[in-house]
């Protein structure tokens, strides 16, 4: 009995540790096994201009299959053209993907700038452009210095899966809220108020939606303050 007990004490933790490793699913893996079914259903919805159905499918797909997976490490470049990895960021990461041909939602950039200022000690804000350096450098002037502006130039990209999965699979813009251990806590689309929406109203709609997601997923318990008195730039 003593020998069996010793075997369990030494082997048990190893088996448990192996099970934990096996249960850790990465974003690329989750997409590989589930993306084709989502695309088939989403393409059908958008073919018939059923945008509400398309939105529902996106939310179900991300919440059921992608959230809870771990974001793969991948490389991009900063404005100084220095290569940087996602895992270089040690805080929780708010990652949003753009491109020069992708028009941000009205009020979105001022909301991001304010949130990056508010949470700069707790979260790394990263804006990833799928574009060439010169265009990204020009667009970066709209963002706060509290936000890391990075890019992937598809013509020079060495990690093909990054372009295929992060850019082409979910569309632009897409927000990823990633915990410090790189677990994906939330995936969301940008808020797109109607074109006639006032600038300040559009800002507040974006701010509240993003701040709620951040406080619920990345900094739980943080006493966030809604920007009631902050004006959009």
UniProtKB/TrEMBL annotation:
<dbReference type="GO" id="GO:0016209">
    <property type="term" value="F:antioxidant activity"/>
</dbReference>
<dbReference type="InterPro" id="IPR013766">
    <property type="entry name" value="Thioredoxin_domain"/>
</dbReference>
<dbReference type="GO" id="GO:0016491">
    <property type="term" value="F:oxidoreductase activity"/>
</dbReference>
<dbReference type="InterPro" id="IPR050553">
    <property type="entry name" value="Thioredoxin_ResA/DsbE_sf"/>
</dbReference>
<dbReference type="GO" id="GO:0016853">
    <property type="term" value="F:isomerase activity"/>
</dbReference>
<protein>
    <submittedName>
        <fullName>Thiol-disulfide isomerase/thioredoxin</fullName>
    </submittedName>
</protein>
<dbReference type="Pfam" id="PF00578">
    <property type="entry name" value="AhpC-TSA"/>
</dbReference>
<dbReference type="InterPro" id="IPR036249">
    <property type="entry name" value="Thioredoxin-like_sf"/>
</dbReference>
<feature type="domain" description="Thioredoxin">
    <location>
        <begin position="65"/>
        <end position="213"/>
    </location>
</feature>
<keyword id="KW-0413">Isomerase</keyword>
<dbReference type="InterPro" id="IPR000866">
    <property type="entry name" value="AhpC/TSA"/>
</dbReference>
């Amino acid at each position: 009995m003593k020998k069996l007990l010793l075997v369990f004490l030494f082997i048990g933790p190893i088996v448990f540790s192996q099970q934990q490793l096996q249960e850790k699913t990465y974003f690329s893996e989750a997409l590989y096994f589930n993306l084709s079914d989502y695309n088939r259903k989403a393409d059908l919805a958008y073919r018939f201009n059923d945008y509400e159905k398309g939105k529902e499918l996106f939310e179900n797909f991300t919440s059921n299959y992608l959230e809870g997976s771990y974001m793969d490490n991948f490389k991009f470049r900063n404005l100084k053209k220095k290569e940087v990895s996602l895992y270089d960021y040690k805080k929780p990461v708010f990652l949003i993907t753009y491109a020069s041909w992708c028009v941000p939602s009205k009020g979105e950039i001022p909301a991001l700038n304010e949130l990056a200022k508010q949470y700069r000690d707790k979260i790394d804000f990263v804006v990833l452009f799928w574009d060439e350096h010169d265009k990204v450098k020009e667009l970066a002037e709209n963002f706060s210095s509290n936000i890391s502006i990075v890019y992937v130039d598809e013509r020079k990209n060495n990690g093909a899966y990054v372009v295929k999965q992060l850019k082409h699979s979910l569309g632009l813009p897409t927000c990823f809220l990633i915990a410090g251990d790189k677990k994906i806590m939330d995936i969301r689309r940008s808020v797109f108020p109607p074109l006639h929406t006032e600038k300040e109203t559009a800002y507040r709609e974006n701010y509240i939606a993003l701040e709620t997601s951040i406080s619920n997923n990345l900094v739980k318990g943080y006493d966030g303050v809604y920007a009631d008195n902050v004006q959009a730039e």
